[in-house]
Specification:
Blueprint (H helix, E strand, L loop, with lengths): L5 E4 L9 H16 L3 E6 L9 H14 L8 E2 L4 H14 L2 E4 L3 H13 L15 H9 L5 E4 L6 E5 L3 E5 L8 E3 L7 H11 L4 E5 L6 H10 L6 E5 L2 E2 L15 H7 L3 H9 L14 H7 L10 E2 L2 H14 L2 H17 L8 H11 L6 H7 L13 H7 L5 H14 L5 H15 L4 H12 L7 H8 L1 H18 L18
Parallel strand pairs: 1-2, 2-3, 9-10, 11-12
Antiparallel strand pairs: 4-5, 5-8, 6-7
Bound molecules: glutamic acid (GLU).
């Protein structure tokens, strides 16, 4: 039991890192860190035609973004081909493998015929019977061959941490190829050779690999190498219970980053796709995950990816972030909007305030700029027709807004607290509910009928701005009536400042 856990994430750089791959990486990482083991990275780039450096960079960037730091130097599978060949040679030498001169199409025909005859459900090469001498002679004569594994007669069993004992009858497994006719080792060869050389103790990967596992177990046995523990994690389906498609979740992780997802939220959410802590917690910090993650908590049933849930989780994590971090995330877009004239120059200091007031109501950082336009510029018009009709119908409103502005003007210190106190005092004097002042004031300062706490907003906007906007709305209402005539739905409402 003193054996150190060594796990690996082994992506093929034939595409960007998607939700499924990221979840596999996360489970490996969590298991390694939870058990004080090592998390290794291996780039399985032996498919020359489909592998691309661009994808590799994307995968590394996504892992870094999620904070999945790997140990040791990453291994590049394509650099190990000679080692893979050595392993195949050893298996040939021991008799566990053999040269097969049967061309692929013919092998398929032999298998079909065998199955029709009611024999075994797998390909058995006639060339397994060749003597070492015959086989060598044909190879020396230049006849092309693949090297195949000689499937034994005994069934194969292995232990899976998720499914328990998995047994496969030997007669369903082909004499599979270890090395192709062109001399290239297959995935089966490379993965066992590398996992064995890397000292991998636990193979945690997608359930789509489970049919490969019996073959790999046979290879370990033939090599007299220790068989790792396996954990095949359930597939992730879309909300329609079909394979994840582009519409939901099959995007690259880096696209989620661009959309404003926080890595903490993605880490927390993906961890719960196919794993549960045993209680009904839904949100996990990295430390909580590291503490709680076990292979026993992995579920058998497939998981469903729900982007709305992920978005909700992002909102939860957003509200817990330090303001500085969110400001940092928004800095580039903020600058772009200033340069594009969408936000006035000189409003930089308002960014911190907008973040502070709005972060608990935003799903994404960008929402702070979109919903919080009024932090940077006076509302041009009353966007919210319904709110205007309901909240600005009292004929006394213009005078009250004017008077509130006058009262604010006299305050020596203006902040969340004093703005509230002054407003409530005035409402008491008028003997009206505070709502009679609160709603019109909200519309005056923000142009919309709902938002964060009004007084937090007022405090953040500052006295001058608040007074100006109150007076602007008072003027507007005197001109356009209570409630104001905002024209019909198809045209823009009149500007607050004509
Ligand atoms: N390279 C394989 C893949 O990306 C993973 C192989 C494995 O985990 O054994 O699907």
């Amino acid at each position: 039991m003193s054996e150190t856990v060594r796990v690996r994430f082994a992506p093929s750089p034939t595409g960007y890192l998607h939700i499924g791959g990221a979840r596999t990486a996360i489970f490996n990482y969590l298991y390694a860190r939870h058990s004080g083991g090592r998390f290794l990275l291996r780039i399985e780039d032996t498919d020359r035609r489909r592998s691309r450096r661009e994808y590799e960079q994307d995968i590394l960037a996504a892992l870094a973004w999620l904070g999945l730091e790997w140990d040791e130097e990453p291994l590049r599978q394509s650099a190990r081909i000679s080692r893979h060949r050595e392993m195949v040679d050893a298996l040939l030498e021991s008799g566990a493998a053999f040269r097969c001169f049967v061309p692929l199409e013919k092998a398929e025909r032999i298998k079909q015929a065998e199955m029709e005859r009611g024999g075994i459900n797998a390909f058995r090469s006639p060339d397994r019977e060749l003597s070492a001498k015959q086989s060598q002679a044909r190879a020396d004569a230049g006849e092309p061959f693949a090297i195949r594994f000689r499937i034994p007669t005994l069934d194969v069993s292995f232990h899976d941490a998720v499914r328990g004992t998995v047994s496969t009858p030997a007669h369903t497994i082909d004499d599979f190829i270890l090395m192709r006719r062109d001399g290239s080792p297959t995935y089966m060869t490379a993965v066992v050779c590398d996992d064995s050389d890397m000292g991998i103790t636990h193979v945690i990967r997608g359930a789509d690999h489970i049919t490969n596992t019996p073959k790999q177990v046979l290879l370990y046995q033939a090599l007299a190498a220790p068989v790792p523990e396996f954990a095949h994690v359930p597939l992730i389906l879309g909300p329609d219970r079909k394979r994840l498609s582009k519409r939901h979740g099959a995007q690259a992780l880096t696209e989620y980053r661009e959309q404003g997802y926080l890595p903490e939220a993605v880490l927390s959410y993906l961890s719960t796709l196919g794993w549960s802590s045993g209680d009904d917690r839904e949100l996990f910090t990295r430390d909580q995950l590291l503490e709680n993650f076990t292979l026993a908590g992995i579920n058998k049933a497939s998981a469903v990816f729900d982007e709305q849930k992920l978005e909700w989780m992002n909102a939860q994590f957003m509200s817990q972030q330090p303001d500085e971090r969110l400001q940092q995330m928004l800095r580039r877009e903020f600058a772009r909007r200033i340069m594009a004239g969408e936000i006035p120059h000189g409003t930089g200091p308002m960014l911190a305030k907008a973040v502070n007031v709005l972060k608990t109501r935003a799903h994404f950082p960008i929402d702070i700029l979109d919903k919080g336009r009024y932090f940077f510029t006076d509302p041009e018009l009353i966007e919210d027709r319904k709110a205007a009709k309901k909240r600005l119908k009292d004929p006394a409103t213009p005078d009250r807004l004017e008077e509130l502005a006058n009262r604010y003007e006299k305050l020596s210190g203006f902040d969340e607290h004093s703005s509230e106190q002054a407003l409530r005092e005035y409402a008491d004097e008028l003997e009206v509910g505070a709502g009679k002042l609160i709603h019109p004031t909200r519309l005056a300062v923000s142009g919309v009928g709902s938002g964060p706490s009004l007084f937090a907003m007022l405090g953040a906007l500052g006295k001058e701005t608040v007074m100006r906007r109150l007076r602007t709305l008072a003027r507007f209402l005197r001109e356009h009536g209570t409630p104001p005539d905002l024209g019909d739905e198809d045209t823009d409402p009149p500007k607050l400042t004509a």
